[in-house]
Amino acid sequence: MKGILFALGGFAVFSLHDVVIKLLANYSVFQIVFFAMLFGYVPFSIGRLFDRREIALRPVHPLLVLLRSVLVTTSLCCAALAFSLLPMVQVYVLIFMTPLIISVLAIPVLGEKIHRFRWMTILLGLVGIVIVLRPSPDTLQAGHLFALIAAFASAGAAIISRKIGHVENTATLMLAPMIMNILVSGSILYFVYQPMPVDDLALMFLIGALALVAHLLLLAAYRNAPASLVAPMQYSQLLWALVYGFFFFGEQIDSFIVLGSLVTILSGLLMIWRETRVSTIKPILRTRNIRMVSAAPVPGSEQDKTQP
């Protein structure tokens, strides 16, 4: 129960983190990402490095580590763009396509076979997305494309993490995407920077602080509960998106949004259940969380706790 409570708290804080990103939508996404990394992910990663006492940073698979860093950076920037353009619940529904994409990518990359049950859960997840978005030429926007790119990039990074996580140093997997994010956003910041009043600078700091708190809560969750109990808690973010979107931005909640969100949640829970009880590769469960930018995959020994 302690692990579940830590997980629910971490995902609630992550959702509030996204609220602040949306409040700062008048700034460039690269300016937001740069300060988020500076105030949140840098202290988190440095603290984790000292905690692990791992100093060997040379990657065993440098090209895959580089590709993973590019994908993580793409996912973070595109997700921030999507939040600035779309209602929160629509962004979350699209981002939660990530487990579905991971399942499909696991076929050629990890050698896993998708049986009928998993295909049914993938189709169910797609149905939930269609119910929420009700796509048409008039309703689809650039924000939907950015959210989809974020989902695909996050899934690709998760698959690479699962493929190389057992041989790469944890410090390498943490630092590489962080450095990539800082280099990319910092280099572009020169061209897009807007002076910030103190209030907005405080919000930039808050993004980083919330990311730091959310990461720490999720790490505490994984220390106190198996991945099979922590992973389903991420779908609580859809509920927070409905609440935060309504109170902060006046986003309307209708029956289609509620129904589609529930269908999406059901699809994700069924997929996690299958990995817990049937699958031997478990690409979703062994990825700490699709939003933990610099996190390494769940170690095999930790994952073993989820076996029935």
Number of alpha- plus pi-helical segments: 13
The largest β sheet comes out as: none
The secondary-structure element order is HHHHHHHHHHHHH
Q: Provide the residue-averaged pLDDT.
A: 80
Helical proportion, percent range: over 70%
Distance from N terminus to C terminus (CA atoms, Å) equals: 18 Å
User: How many discrete domains?
Assistant: 1
Number of strands: 0
Textual characterization of the structure:
The structure is a single chain. With 308 residues, the chain is mainly α. It has one domain (2-298). The protein contains 13 helices and no strands. The chain has helices spanning 2-23, 29-52, 62-85, 88-95, 98-110, 116-133, 142-164, 170-192, 198-224, 227-230, 236-249, 255-277, 300-303. Helix 2 crosses helix 3 and helix 3 crosses helix 8 (170-192). The chain is globular and about 55 Å long. Mean pLDDT is 80; it is low at 300-308.
Give a short summary of the structure:
This protein has helices at residues 2-23, 29-52, 62-85, 88-95, 98-110, 116-133, 142-164, 170-192, 198-224, 227-230, 236-249, 255-277, 300-303. The protein is mostly helical and 308 residues long. The chain starts with a helix and ends in a 5-residue tail after the last helix.
